């Protein structure tokens, strides 16, 4: 069941969270709304937890890799997010910044900290927010730290992006990135640039909406590791994009390529 917690916003330093208990999620949200009217902040766990205690060791499934950006102003934060090749699946706007969520296709507890540490590093997010049992504010409820200036936490943007753990490790985890860059693919440049080989090499028939950016980024990095030229990388990426069922826009492809300095 979806877990929600409440805490008086004035007690945020003491972190006296209490779980909102109910028979079902609808009832839970109704209780949360009443508590929010009383100036309680409303939080949730975004990963699955078993047992009564909200502890990292009790997390059983990674649903999202998430970060809490609280440094700089909101304009600077959005610029940092936009500059990343991998876009968050959900961005939540809180009073002082944004929470970024990357939806996990096959996330594991073992690699959670590696990936989130990388996200924190790239987005200049809160370095203490690495715990997979971490609580973040729920959109649709008010932030009451300043009772004279409440702020409605809301969804800033969302999309269908779902990320494979290997791709997240490649992009965000430094050690894993260095390791994978050393991998040698026993495929020649001629084989890569032949469109007849793309299905065999990249399994492009597996690319579907919600995983297109994820998959195209993985292909791009593999081409880089194989020392393909920028011209060849652009030719292959643009060619593969035309073959998938729902291609990315030209702007999205150009942004992906620019993010890797492929012009």
Verbal overview:
With 263 residues, this protein is an alpha+beta fold. The protein is built from ten helices and twelve strands. The strands form four sheets. It has a four-stranded antiparallel sheet. The chain has a four-stranded antiparallel sheet with strand order 6-8-7-12, covered by helices on one side. Strands 4-5 form a two-stranded antiparallel sheet. Helix 3 (109-123) packs across helix 4 (165-172) and helix 4 (165-172) crosses helix 5 (174-181). The longest helix is centred in the middle third of the chain and has 15 residues, at 109-123. It is elongated, with a radius of gyration of 21 Å. The mean pLDDT is 88.
Question: What is the number of beta strands?
Answer: 12
Which parts are unreliable, with pLDDT below 50 for 5 consecutive residues or more?
none
User: What amount of the residues lies in strands?
Assistant: 15-25%
Main sheet record: 4 strands, antiparallel
> Over all CA atoms, what is the radius of gyration?
21 Å
- Form type: elongated
Total count of domains: 2
Give the distance, in angstroms, between the N- and C-terminal Cα atoms: 47 Å
CATH architecture of the largest domain: 2-Layer Sandwich
- CATH topology annotation of the largest domain: Alpha-Beta Plaits
**What is the strand arrangement across the widest sheet?**
2-1-3-9
Name of the CATH superfamily of the largest domain: RepB DNA-primase, N-terminal domain
Name the CATH class of the largest domain: Alpha Beta
* Elements, N to C (H/E): EEHEEEEHEEHEEEEHHHHHHH
State the share of residues found in helices, binned by percent.
Answer: 25-40%
What count of helical segments does DSSP give? 10
**What is the arithmetic mean of pLDDT?**
88
Category by helix and strand content: alpha+beta
